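Run: sequence + EPU -> complex structure.
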Amino acid sequence: MTVTKNASLLKHNTFGIEATAAAWAEYDSENELRQLLTLVEEGQLPRPLLHVGAGSNLLFLADYAGTVLHSRIGGVEVLAETPEEVLVRVGSGMVFDRFVEYAVACGWHGLENLSLVPGEVGGAAVQNIGAYGVEAADFIERVEGVWLADGHRDEWPKTACDYSYRHSIFKSKLRAEIAVTAVTFRLSKVFSPRLDYGGLRKAMAEQGLDEARLSPQQLRELVISIRRSKLPDPQVLGNAGSFFMNPVVEAAAYERLLASYPAMPCYPLPDGRVKVPAAWLIERAGWKGRQMGPAAVHDRQALVLVNRGGATGRDILRLSDAVREAVRQQFGIDLQPEVNMIGSASL
Ligand code: EPU
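>> structure
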């Protein structure tokens, strides 16, 4: 394990925000995590505790006065296997896309559409990451974790994880209470690609790919190429992917909006409500590509806020507030951030 006092968080958040933590503590096993929790108990590491993954969905609004914990638990273990599927347990600190790459190479299918989503396996289970019509929860069997209060081990079968769009029990009720240590996925050995999400078939046609002969590796590469064409590389331009969630509106509200904006794209949900792309609302509100000091709305994907260099968390928050206000004024919709904000939200 590694403990660093007064640690810079710059390399631990993809927004590239300069902030410090009173302590940064990384562990390589559940036992090491328990040792760290004992140090906290003894007052050798400061509270409060914040558990992070790769920092790809975080915005630091201020320095952090407590201890930031990070899992380096790796490893991929096959728990059970049949000719049709595999149950595979993965350490929470593994980079999610390394696991997707490994799964594709092993002939384990389902996660191809999540290729290149940033972050680690633990964060993927907490955030219920999603892309191109697939969510992590579709393939999660079980989540294992440790209670930060007393270090005891626990596990949550998928039904206890309260999964929905970009939501889980670990993000809500158990927020700040659990360190996820491992995630078990149920993957298929039969490749049945999900290609219905807008843009996938179009990109296949553009790249001359034949749906009937599409291989898992080709699907992975297709998704990677679409992501690279739209989403900025955090190494070049700090960002945390989609800054806002796509809002879900009641059917009646959607009908009213449609009367004014007949071209508005939408995704009807099984319960009658309608998901509307936040990127479209932001673009129509005139904010795509706009800057506010060192923060900007990305010019190729309006859902992404970027750090043009030297932005503070508050610069990003100021831009987010302005974008939300513009969308509220024009459409009567209050966009909710997908990014987790750490620190006081008052400017
Ligand atoms: N659109 C615009 N303007 C833009 C960008 C998009 O009008 O600048 C419109 C497009 O025309 C399209 C719609 O918005 O009709 C949806 O766009 P896109 O397919 O790019 O997806 P998104 O809804 O903006 C979501 C996820 C992404 C994920 C993509 C692909 C959320 C919050 N975001 O974005 O996830 O990669 O779908 O599945 O659900 C992330 O969570 O960090 C993330 C990148």
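>> summary
Residues 131-132, 197-199, 230-231, 241-242, 245-246, 265, 277, 279-280, 283, 288, 301-303, 338 surround EPU (CB under 6 Å). The longest strand covers residues 178-188.
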